[in-house]
Amino acid sequence: VEAHAIAVDLGGTGLRAARIDRFGNILDRLEVATKAQAGADAVLEQISELVDSIIKNASDARILGVGVCAPGPLDTKRGIALSIPTINGFDNYPLLAKLQECLALPVVLENDAIAAAVGEWKFGAGLGSENIVYVTVSTGIGGGIIADGKVLRGRQGMAGHIGHMIVVPDGELCNCGCRGCFEAYGSGPAFAARAKIRANQGNQTLLGKNNAKIDCPAIFAAAKAKDPLAIELVREEAEILGRGFTSLAHLFSPDLIVMGGGLANEFDCLIPAILKNFRANSMKAFQNIPIRCSILGGSSGLIGASSLLFEQFHTPK
Ligand SMILES: [Zn+2]
Q1: Rounded to the nearest 10 degrees, how much is the dihedral formed by the CA atoms of 151, 155, 158, 164?
Q2: First-to-last CA distance in the chain?
Q3: How far apart are the CA of 116 and the centre of ligand 1, in A?
Q4: 184 CA distance to ligand 1 centroid (A)?
Q5: Beta-carbon neighbour count of residue 190 at 10 Å?
Q6: Separation of 192 CA from ligand 1 center, angstroms?
Q7: Whole-angstrom Cα distance, residue 223 to residue 220?
Q8: Considering the entire predicted model, what is its pTM?
Q9: Helical ranges in 200-316 per DSSP H
Q10: How much distance in Å is there from the Cα of 164 to the middle of ligand 1?
């Protein structure tokens, strides 16, 4: 029988699980809303139920174990969730030990953005490259780095928190508690917040017309309908991202930068201005680094987590 991995992606809103083969193919997939307010035990029970359901559907396979990815900061060297800002009850929580106990299978634990970077590296936009910077832009900004053909993990396995590069001194308050972080300017909520303020300043715009909700999809839709304010807002967002990507290019000299997360759904809309800004701000020798859209989309973390599990536990017979 073929060996398969189960991957679990623990997010602040959705909890997803999948059965995946060693070629990165998703064979089965389930998703529930995370009980983010109910405490760690309730969430562990949800994970356990999802894994059980997937195992029930997998009579044709041998399950190697479970690759779990979760938001950080996560000390993956010790298997401890230091805090998960979007889910209650995970402060200094021994996540790896608890998962091993309740799943009774081998478990690999990884930071979600690092897992997504691995997924894109092994099976997605970064296939064949040795140096990749993966950036996810959604409710926050996260990242993962592949350098010299290896996953960059750093102290406590926490490398790649690129959303918290400080880009403005004493700037906007970030979700992390610090001020002026890249995330506090470039994330989806920051983008939408800017749009709300500007739409309320009496600018001529479709945004917020008839009390319509001003969120990221609304801004992109208005920009596509040639709304001048929305076009300006999209250009500004792309400039913020382009500046961030410039710093990342200078730091890591990747073969390519891969953009994922919710805002990557509008990659085509953002990329002209991202590239323009990236090239205007970076040193000449870095200007030709490609910036590509994630290929695996919302599955990059799941596929990366499964790949890490195969790497650690699969010994082909
Ligand atoms: Zn921050």
Answers
A1: -110
A2: 11
A3: 20
A4: 7
A5: 22
A6: 17
A7: 5
A8: 0.96
A9: 216-224, 228-252, 267-281, 300-313
A10: 4
